[in-house]
Amino acid sequence: MVGKWHLGFYRKECLPTRRGFDTFLGSLTGNVDYYTYDNCDGPGVCGFDLHEGESVAWGLSGQYSTMLYAQRVSHILASHSPRRPLFLYVAFQAVHTPLQSPREYLYRYRTMGNVARRKYAAMVTCMDEAVRNITWALKRYGFYNNSVIIFSSDNGGQTFSGGSNWPLRGRKGTYWEGGVRGLGFVHSPLLKRKRRTSRALVHITDWYPTLVGLAGGTASAADGLDGYDVWPAISEGRASPRTEILHNIDPLYNHARHGSLEAGFGIWNTAVQAAIRVGEWKLLTGDPGYGDWIPPQTLAAFPGSWWNLERMASARQAVWLFNISADPYEREDLAGQRPDVVRALLARLVDYNRTAIPVRYPAENPRAHPDFNGGAWGPWASDEEEEEEEEEAGRARSFSRGRRKKKCKICKLRSFFRKLNTRLMSQRI
Fold it and tell me: What CA–CA distances, in Å, run from 211 to 73, 98, 229?
């Protein structure tokens, strides 16, 4: 693996090299600096984050991450025999914030008025060149003719940081199509039908069984997987085996003021933030997030009148229904016209929610501070400590149930800030 991990690292067992990857070069956290690899998780909580395997890679600081990662991929391919199978996961940091790019790429877009959009375009161009260099390396070292290249974004663009989802609705972090749709392509000499657009329904969980199948293995529903092998749909244009996508159910996010169990036919509280796709239909409940249609930010100054041009989201609503195939821009809400479909999709949410694992947000651990790890982000807990924390939490819950609650203003404040932090973390995720 090369690139951004961002899937947890509080224990060594969570690191990429303990999760199936033979080698790893990259960052463990989110928005690190592209050159210094510093990352702050609040005022004064800063540390270095570039790792080689399970060690801190201090000596690689100063190189622009997109170029560094592409170079590492080329080195891996140069030292690997094309006769041996290879899975290579490259998670570019680009084009996530902070918006940083080498000066020579910025110069190409010097006439672009909006500064954020200019930086974003430069970062995309640099990443495009990195993809080209990796493709060239696949050809040079003999991998290309028997390879499959999958390029995909992980979510919609952040419209406040140079991204654009126009004409789709919403932005990164929302359940609108502008937030949940990913851009991507599959490139391979093994494709049977090339140079076409596929409109097959594909979810990120489908990549695992698809890649296992391509490698000659088998991954069946009996293994408890959520994904499907979608290679026939991609390569041959067949129908996708996937008919549903549960976008999310978030019980922690702010409940919509106008949602209720009654509005959900008595089976689902529509105040809960959730979204699901079944066939052509998409249902959203609760607060799906910022729901405007935001034009591309091309002007130097973003006029308020233009910004407000498409502000049509209703704050007094908690249920939306769209036919996504006919209306991918989510402009015609059909919830009032098709209560039968609303009820059917709410029932699917109920079914999915029955197997949901309870949300657990541990308290912040001061030992995670980089100062206790030589100035770098890294694991701080052991298996034994984890078991002890869970036991203490269980005893605390039992003790609190057995005590008579006392009125405590400080306790109320602590509860308030704990809930506030939970909501902020949920929104950040």
Answer: 19, 32, 8
- Asked if 7 and 30 touch (Cβ cutoff 8 Å), the reply is no
Query: Are 18 and 53 spatial neighbours (Cβ–Cβ below 8 Å)?
Result: no
Contacts with 283 (C-beta within 8 Å, 6 or more apart), sequence order:
275, 276, 319, 320, 321, 341, 342, 345, 346, 349
Check: CB of residue 48 under 8 Å from CB of residue 56.
yes
- 163-191 pLDDT, tens digit per residue, is 889 999 999 999 999 999 988 999 999 99
Predicted confidence band of residue 298 (pLDDT cuts 50, 70, 90): low
φ, ψ dihedrals at 38, nearest 5°: -85, 150
- Rounded CA-CA distance 170/153 in Å is 16
- What's the rounded Cα separation, in Å, for the pair 176 and 173? 9
Q: Which of 136, 138, 95 is nearest to 117 (CA)?
A: 95
Contact in structure between 337 and 237 (CB atoms under 8 Å): no
Between the alpha carbon of residue 79 and those of residues 57, 85, 252, 312, the distances in Å are: 21, 13, 47, 55
